[in-house]
Amino acid sequence: MKSLFKISSRYVVTAALITLLVLTxxxxxxxxxxxxxxxxxxxxxxxxxxxxxxxxxxxxTAAGYEMSEAGYAxxxxxxxxxxxxxNNNGDVVWEYQLPDEISRHYSLSDVAVxxxxxxxxxxxxxxxxxxxxxxxxxxxxxARFDFFGDVRFYQKLPQMFYLLLLFNLLLIAGLALLFGFxxxxxxxxxxxxxxxxxxxxxxxxxxxxMVSDLxxxxxxxxxxxxxxxxxxxxxxxxxxxxxxxxxxxxxxxxSFIMGFSDELATSPELExxxxxxxxxxxxxxxxxxxxxxxLNLTVKLEYQSQPLQxxxxxxxxLLREMIAELYxxxxxxxxxxxxxxxxxxxxxxxFGDRQLxxxxxxxxxxxxxxxxxxxxxxxxxxxxxxxxLLLLFSDxxxxxxxxxxxxxxxxxxxxxxxxxxxxxxxxxxxKAHGGEVAFLKGHENGNHIMIYLPISNx
Length: 458
Hints:
The protein is of the alpha+beta class. The chain has four domains: 2-43 and 157-187; 49-137; 212-300, Orthogonal Bundle (Helix Hairpins), CATH 1.10.287; 307-454, Heat Shock Protein 90 (2-Layer Sandwich), CATH 3.30.565. It contains 13 helices and 16 strands. It has helices at residues 2-44, 48-56, 69-77, 108-114, 151-155, 157-198, 212-265, 272-302, 315-328, 343-346, 354-370, 402-408, 421-432; strands spanning 58-61, 64-67, 82-86, 92-96, 118-119, 122-129, 132-137, 142-144, 148-150, 310-313, 335-341, 350-353, 376-385, 388-395, 436-439, 448-454. The strands form five sheets. It has a five-stranded antiparallel β-sheet. The chain has a five-stranded mixed β-sheet with strand order 11-13-14-16-15. α2 (48-56) packs antiparallel against α3, α6 (157-198) runs parallel beside α7 and α8 (272-302) packs parallel to α13.
């Protein structure tokens, strides 16, 4: 929570900085523009100092008022287009470039009007000089309200508004990209660390910047996971070694039991009842031996320590060999094994381990035989579909209990009284070959298992 608060705070500060920067930039731009406009307005108007300097160059003579050459020079260098001097009677007693449209006599009310606004659309500057009134006319491009402004400035206001809006958008987008890139650079180690963490790689992320808390926590998590993985490896290795050791220790006395029980079962010196008991001991010992072998195999497959001797082989041929071997072992007549191999499956090759794939056939067919003591019909159908070899194992017997299927599919926890070793080995072998196993439902009776194996392209 502390790291998230730190990141959120940084975002709030960043947003505030962007807002402040945009406002400051806009205010600065407006002030600069207004300063430029003010200078233009001063150039377009008549300042008090200008009018004072001009009037100093004017003198009264017997013939009227005269302007010196310096005064005319000041008028020409100013924004003044024309000028006139009015006496108390409203008569023009002096003029400079006065247009014909401008009257030469004004009443008191006329003077009151034009002194505040315009005269024939000319904005005016007025200045009292003694008992007379000096009037200066400037360009019609200058607008006069409560202040003087260039008309062209107001005409450009819509364009200026859109330019200002575009500038703000570009500024905000640029700042967002800049701060976003900086934030991306800060988060990039986090993303890389999570990716490495998912691959169980050891992390050494730099613990700096606004995501320093997160990187530190990721490094700590990585260290914990590495330690746990080491402990799990040690535990799994210990379990594997223990199972291998027990299997080895049990195998020798079990061989003696099987050997002696076989001798007793065939000994003519024993009664028939004792021979049957000896044969029962031999058969149960064989079951124990098979269970130990299955336990070793499933552990090796689970931890991928079982070396696979892969080669291109025909599962159709392997199935026929397996069925022939079962019949050679004098399988009970109550069981009928029917291979159904489609034409395209005859030539299909699979890149796999011959011994392990034979074990798949043995376990599935043997499973149907063991769980149907009264006999059943066993069918193995092979076909090709979308680059996969499909094997459907089905029988007319009791079928696989739902509890077993749920455990194999990971939908239910394992229970000691439910034995799934044979089918689990099938799943592990097929998975090691890149295939899948599906337990089909919706059939009225029997066992129905579908296996998908990729066909070799070599």
